[in-house]
Write a structure and sequence with these properties.
CATH class of chain C: Mainly Alpha
Largest sheet of chain C: none
Strand order of the largest sheet of chain A: 6-7-8-3-9-10
Shape of chain A: globular
Number of domains of chain A: 3
Radius of gyration of chain C: 22 Å
CATH superfamily of the largest domain in chain A: P-loop containing nucleotide triphosphate hydrolases
Number of strands of chain C: 0
Chains: A alpha/beta (515), B mainly alpha (332), C mainly alpha (352)
Number of strands of chain A: 22
Strand content of chain C: under 5%
Distance between the termini of chain C: 35 Å
Order of helices and strands of chain C: HHHHHHHHHHHHHHH
Oligomer: heterotrimer
Largest interface: B-C, 49 and 45 residues
Structural class of chain A: alpha/beta
Structural class of chain C: mainly alpha
CATH topology of the largest domain in chain A: Rossmann fold
Chain lengths: 515, 332, 352
């Protein structure tokens, strides 16, 4: 067995109020794919930021090829051959492919000028070495597909002679055929002795390409094991640390009449012909890959990006919704996916954040009643047990879980009948997560209809009365709570259920289909 | 995990916190600078701290003030309007042109000028929301375009000899106070109340801090932007009218450079150029400070326009002080 | 990495008429060039006088100093900043140049030639210094460029008036008039001899500097770093590019080019006076019409130069089309709008 290229030993990293990493180990050997697993908030991204020089650990050591090193900046890590491909790709949209690959270390002529011809040909070489021969290196990166941009990022890492390549959820936003190409590229890199740190939520990917797997949970190191000695169940229980039933205390709620119904809802390029119903007291989970049209359909219902065709019915009556304001008047609330950019106004205080959805109700002749507004803030803090010193606290300074509660609070203030939650527990700690799940359960008991979009399988399985699966903009499957399993949902998300002709994707081989 | 810490943090009584926040605000820093400036200037010359002089300064700053009020709204949302001076010029020209060349009754010509101003602002807003043209670029283009229209319509002719009643707004006093100052004060009070107390004002802050989150919260972002750019155009037109009334003549270069004076007053008043924070009170203090510095320095014998050196420096320094304070508050 | 090379066959790009057309219309520079030629041809066919040598020289020389200043503005805007103090700076440096040339208190060993040389060079150095100060405040003190340069606009304007007392400067020594030199006067040109022989220095400065800067921005690492910082500051940081250093460089060079433009402006006429037309807006307009995105990260100096000439051509053309020159600005304003909308549309289509 070859010695590791990179070792991280006893890494601890704390942020104000949070221990993100607590005595964590990780190492990567040449030519292997080492998967890093854990739930959201488990500390994966903090760990890769330590490995790539973005954060310096509070304690612990980083060893590159036997030598202890200190990464003061991402530049230092790069100099040691460690390259990272983040989810939000770091490219220059207005510059060419070749230039993106070589920015900062472009080949020069003898006079010191940038050698464009060499830059282009070397870019082509690097791409060709990855079996990419269909890319025009003079094209602007901004005009490429996401899959192609990712390949540019990989080429960029190779141009810097990366020996360790860290990939943070590389398959989150790309199409299936792009995923296949990515895997074949990873295979090539392995043969060349590059060590790959692979972060993904999709267990089947880990089994497909992973050699070893390390699991983190709540900032702590759980274990490192060879993938071929693992089973999915074992991995899940390592990640979750307890059985699913204990984690999500879903309460039974009486299911009433249909509140929301959508028929053949279509928005060009993102959602096609989607129809479903939502009943009082019901929690309907919506599964699907990122980009499958889940958030998009929610935003169509919410009027943020209105539908091009199809209809929305509230209490059986067809309604026209073209703005979020209209949706809110029909009692629809939407808790968006990205808390930081879509949900919260970080620079404003808790009071202003909770009242923003109900300003009209809190005001008289457009004058905001400060007293009522403060009352609302206090009652939200109490109802959702938000840990904040008061209504004047800037929400940007709250922890992730408390921030999410503020967003939940601002939507509950509208007293919705239909609550659409998009990744409601992403990136928050386990305690807050359980609280939000309990709250959703209670709201359903009180008769609210809840549509829950989630990428976390345990959450979908644990919370939903019914499960809808989206793929490529279409609703492809529906399961009852009783018939839903991780496998059949996973297959529906990625496979070809409901699509005639095409075979089940090769990456899903070995996963038993039990619809 | 954060929870335990925050709950244990000793919490100071609300009023001391508020007091501290008040003292740290840009408005207080500015007010302090203004008071110091007034004290120093008044020891240098007796002509400065007289009611007559101060009221006259009020008269002179009204036009910029009228523009700086909606400019505060716009900058709070993270936008900017560079076309205000050109709109003022265009409105002024339309007033003279409508009355003199088209033969409209003067009252109607005034209305025409105001309507043109509002339309010009509306057009800015419409392009900004429909085509997502960055406000800086959109209003840079209309800065040239509206000024060009003014020049093209005016053909370098100026209009003068308005009837006597027309000068009442710009040159007369009521109860010893210049007439246009009433408009400025009333406009300032109304815009201040709207910004700080109403749902509309709150939405402007929300837009400036996080436009996407504001849209997701059901705030009519585009409608509100359209309103503030239209308001900005209208107020610029009104300022153009006040100016014509004050200087008795209409020329196509009226209002040149006003955009920068207005922006200077707003930014000096503590409104972040990136949007999300700011107040009308701050803008008014900024406006007064600029005018007093101009006037006081001129009276103490500092060469005329040289006072703007001081203003430019104060602008940069006060922003610097503000950003240092902000950084300390946010613990960066 | 050596093992990769073997399998490679470097593919040539395919060219087809439609792809060439698309790439021509896809770049702002070629659109401008085409528009410029069409405009000249059209106005010339309406009125032959327009094509007279004298007028053609005016068309190309009239905005040369704007084009030179736009070189610096292009860099500043590409890094995602802006400088609205350039107008004041340019007039200040013009006055400085004139003042140095007419000052009579030099010690006896300073010859007239040296005085003139100082009058040409010193404004450029002072421009660089002012640029460095602005750059320092923007980067290290972290105040937005628009606020800093708004402040400098006032400061410079004021200083100018203090120092000059509002006087005009006349009586510059013989030999000072750099901008009136015609470098090709005695050279026989194969085509348009009269035109080339009448061309004055500013045009040569404009063309040569534009070529130099275009080369620098394309072939030097720092030149590319301008695009990197403006295109994606975070990515630039991870590529080891220092944003502070790059933005400082852009502002310093901006000062240099404003200095050169000021000298061109000062040496053009026999009187230098404090007039402050809003040149900064003309310069920004030229830059933006030239295809530099106000959001940073893209654009070239060639586009800015063509735009400066184009704007001047419109002004000159109006006279020959019997349109009142008072409509110039309105037409320029329309033009900026159309360019910006076209630019946004193009980007929108590209990203879709």
């Amino acid at each position: 067995m070859q010695p590791p290229i990179l070792e991280l030993n006893h890494i601890t990293k704390t942020f104000p109020g949070v221990t993100a990493l607590d005595d964590v180990h990780f190492d990567i050997r040449p030519g292997e794919v080492h998967a890093l697993l854990g739930e959201n908030g488990a500390g994966k991204s903090t760990l890769i930021k330590v490995a790539s020089g973005v954060y310096e650990p509070d304690s612990g050591e980083i060893i590159v090829e036997g030598q202890p090193v200190r990464f003061g900046s991402p530049r230092d890590a790069q100099a040691h051959g460690i390259a990272t491909i983040y989810q939000e790709l770091l490219l220059y949209p207005e510059l060419s492919v070749a230039e993106n690959i070589f920015m900062g270390h472009a080949p020069r002529t003898r006079l010191g000028a940038i050698d464009w011809a060499t830059m282009r040909s070397r870019s082509l070489e690097i791409l060709a070495s990855l079996n990419i021969d269909d890319m025009d290196v003079t094209r602007k990166v901004g005009s490429l597909t996401v899959g192609n941009r990712q390949r540019v990022e990989i080429a960029k890492a190779l141009s810097m002679n990366a020996r360790v390549l860290i990939m943070d959820e590389p398959t989150a936003a790309i199409t299936e055929s792009d995923v296949e190409r990515l895997f074949s590229i990873i295979e090539l890199l392995k043969q060349r002795g590059v060590g790959i740190v692979y972060i993904s939520h999709r267990l089947n990917e880990v089994f497909d390409i992973g050699d070893r797997v390390t699991v983190l949970r709540d900032g702590r190191y759980i274990a490192t094991e060879p993938v071929d000695q693992m089973t999915e169940d074992k991995l899940v229980s390592m990640m979750v640390g307890r059985t699913i039933d204990n984690l999500f205390p879903k309460l039974d709620a009486p299911i009433g009449k249909v509140v929301l119904e959508v028929r053949n809802l279509t928005r060009k390029r993102v959602a096609h012909d989607v129809s479903f119903q939502l009943r009082e007291g019901e929690i309907v989970g919506m599964a699907g890959l990122v980009g499958s049209g889940r958030s998009e359909i929610a935003q169509v219902i919410f009027g943020f990006t209105p539908a091009h065709a199809g209809s929305i019915l509230i209490d059986g009556r067809e309604v026209r919704i073209t703005t979020p304001g209209q949706a809110m008047r029909y009692g629809i609330a939407y808790l968006p996916e990205d808390r930081g950019t879509q949900g919260l106004i970080r620079q404003m205080d808790l009071r202003a954040n909770t009242s923003i959805t109900v300003l009209r109700a809190l005001s008289r002749a457009t004058f905001i009643n400060r007293h009522k507004e403060t009352q609302l803030a206090y009652s939200t803090i109490e109802q959702l047990s938000i840990r904040a010193y008061g209504p004047q606290q800037l929400v940007g300074k709250l922890s992730g879980g408390n921030q999410q509660k503020v967003v939940v609070g601002k939507w509950l203030a509208t007293r919705p009948r239909v609550l659409i939650v998009d990744e409601p527990t992403r990136g928050i700690d386990v305690g807050a997560k359980a609280e939000i799940h309990r709250l959703m359960s209670e709201l359903a008991q009180q008769g609210m209809a809840i549509l829950m979009i989630s990428s976390e399988m345990p959450e979908i399985l644990g919370m939903s009365d019914r499960i809808l699966v989206m793929r490529e903009g279409r609703l492809v499957a529906e399961f009852s709570r009783a018939e839903a399993t991780q496998e059949n949902i996973g297959l529906a998300m990625m496979g070809d259920i409901g699509n005639n002709g095409k075979s089940v994707n090769s990456q899903l081989d070995g996963v038993e289909w039990q619809a | 995990m954060t929870a335990h810490e925050t709950s244990q943090t000793r919490i100071a009584p609300a009023w001391t916190q508020q007091l501290r926040a008040l003292l740290r605000s840009q408005e207080s820093v500015l007010l302090f600078i203004t008071v110091i400036a007034v004290l120093i200037l008044s020891t240098q010359t007796d002509k400065f701290l007289t009611v007559r002089n101060l009221l006259n300064q009020g008269r002179l700053m009204t036009e910029i003030g009228l523009i700086a009020l909606p400019m505060t709204y716009i900058i709070v949302t993270g936008g900017i309007d560079l076309s205000v001076g050109s709109i003022a010029g265009l409105s002024a020209i339309m007033l003279g042109y409508g009355w003199y060349n088209l033969g409209l009754p003067l009252e109607l010509a005034i209305v025409l000028a105001l309507v043109i101003g509002a339309i010009a602002g509306f057009a800015n807003g419409l392009f900004i929301i429909l085509f997502r043209v960055p406000p800086l670029i959109m209003t840079l283009a209309t800065l040239a375009f509206y000024r060009g229209l003014a020049e093209g319509i005016a053909q370098a002719r100026s209009v003068r000899d308005y009837p006597e009643w027309f000068y009442a707004l710009g040159q007369r006093e009521t109860l010893g106070i210049p007439n246009q100052l009433y408009f400025l004060v009333i406009a300032a009070i109304i815009t201040a109340i709207i910004l700080s107390r109403t749902t509309f004002g709150r939405s402007l802050y929300a837009i400036g801090n996080n436009e996407l989150a504001a849209r997701f919260s059901g705030i009519p972002v585009r409608r509100n932007k359209l309103i503030i750019y239209t308001l900005s155009g209208f107020m610029s037109g009104f300022a153009g009218y006040v100016l014509v009334s004050r200087v008795s003549t209409t020329r196509s270069d009226m209002g040149s450079g006003w955009e920068l004076d207005a922006i200077a007053a707003v930014v000096l008043g503590g409104t972040s150029i990136f949007g999300g924070s700011g107040s009308i009170v701050g803008t008014m203090i900024g406006l007064v400070l600029i005018q007093l510095l101009k006037n006081g320095l001129a009276l103490t014998g500092v060469t005329g326009d040289a006072t703007i050196v001081v203003i430019g420096s104060v602008l940069i320094l006060s922003t610097l002080i503000n950003s240092v304070i902000q950084r300390r508050v946010e613990g960066l | 990495m050596a093992s990769i090379t073997q399998t490679v066959s470097v593919r040539r790009q395919r060219f087809s008429p439609s792809s060439i057309l698309r790439s021509v219309l896809g770049s702002q520079e070629s659109v401008l060039l085409l528009a410029l030629i069409l405009l000249i041809v059209w106005v010339g066919s309406e009125n032959r006088q327009f094509l007279a040598t004298r007028n053609m020289v005016n068309v190309f020389a009239g905005n040369a100093y704007i084009a030179i200043a736009a070189l610096g503005m292009t860099m500043v805007i590409i890094t995602g900043n802006i400088d609205i103090s350039v107008g004041s700076l340019m007039v200040t440096l013009s006055m400085l140049s004139g003042a140095i040339s007419v000052y009579d208190g030099y010690p006896s060993w300073v010859s007239t030639d040296l005085t003139i040389a100082l009058a040409w060079v010193l404004p450029v150095i002072v421009g660089a210094l002012v640029g460095a100060i602005i750059g320092f405040i923007v980067t290290y003190l972290r105040i937005p460029a628009i606020v800093v340069t708004l402040g400098f606009l006032s400061i410079l304007k004021g200083l100018l008036i203090i120092v000059s007392g509002g006087d005009r400067i006349t009586g510059m020594p013989k030999g000072y008039a750099l901008a009136q030199i015609r470098p090709l006067e005695d050279v026989s040109m194969p085509i348009f001899p009269a035109f080339f022989q009448t061309l004055t220095m500013p045009v040569f400065f404009m063309v040569i500097l534009t070529i130099l800067v275009a080369l620098w921005m394309r072939y030097s690492p720092t030149g590319r770093a301008l695009y990197a910082v403006g295109g994606n500051a975070e990515a630039a940081r991870l590529s080891g590019i220092s944003r502070h250093r790059v933005v400082m460089t852009a502002f310093i060079l901006n000062g240099v080019f404003v200095g050169i433009a000021a000298v061109m402006n000062a040496t053009q006429f026999s009187v230098i006076q404090v007039t402050l037309p809003p040149i900064e807006l003309t310069i920004i307009t030229a830059t933006v019409v030239g295809g530099v995105s106000i959001l940073g990260g893209t654009g070239t100096v060639v586009g800015a130069m063509l735009a400066a000439i184009f704007l001047n051509t419109i002004t000159k053309a109006l006279v020959f089309l019997d349109i009142s020159p008072f409509w110039t600005r309105a037409i320029q304003g329309m033009l900026i709008l159309i360019t910006v909308l076209a630019d946004l549309y193009r980007r929108h289509r590209q990203s879709a």
